[in-house]
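Q: Hi! First time doing this. I have a protein sequence and I read that you can turn it into a structure. Is that right? Here it is:
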Amino acid sequence: MDRLASMTAFVKAVETGSFAATASALGISPQMVAKHVTALEARLGTRLLNRTTRKQSLTEIGRAYYDRCKVVLAEAAWADALADEARGRPRGRLRVNAPVSFGAHSLTPLVARYLTDHPAVDVDLVLSDRFVDLIDDGFEAIFRIGPAPDSNLLAIELAPFRTIACASPAYLRERGTPVTPSDLADHECVTFANWPEPSISPWRFMGDDGPFEAAVRGRLTVNNAAALLQAALAGFGVVLIAEDWARPHLTAGRLVRVAAAYDTPSRPIHLLVHPDRRQTPS
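A: Yes, that's right. Below is the predicted 3D structure, encoded as structure tokens:
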């Protein structure tokens, strides 16, 4: 019996919870699903699924085997896609992870444009600020803001992530406009925290006289860039936010850049992929 077909049936049986649902999804009979699973168990010499008339559950070995089967099937699907890649026609499903704010605002429009150009590609875009593992969590690609990790993954450096300090005109009329980073000590600053990490403090700037760190403080800390932007637009205080997010509001006059003579150091963005993965045509 074809081992990949048996693995496919086994993985689908675990995911659907029944042989009948698996049979419907794969277009085969429930009896054939049972034969595939039994063939795997015979080959391995151990039971993978505990089955009763009402339910089924993975054995301890079955759970480990299920995880490895998913990797094997993903690799097989990737291998099948190589011919189309060579002809310049990407196909298949990509599971991609990115930070929430960057993914929602900057990445999603690019993904939508890519899918429009490549109708044979499907993308599962998972936005999360928690740390995920490329292999263990089943991703083909991960976007990370910050230095490239020390790992065996291939890190492709992208355009850097730049932030600026800004506030609403109403806030600045009431509290004055910070001209230098040191002026921020006298202002209400809304800080960003990616729990469980602490909020990013101090804020770092670069001027003609070199780098400068501003020890900011404030009563509001958020873990979402959209909330950070809304706090600034509401006139609550000064924020350090992605320039891409702030640009339309700066142009419309809803936000004003502060300490404008000072730049904030950009943060690198990397696309992490497995070194064995072949790049699809862009």
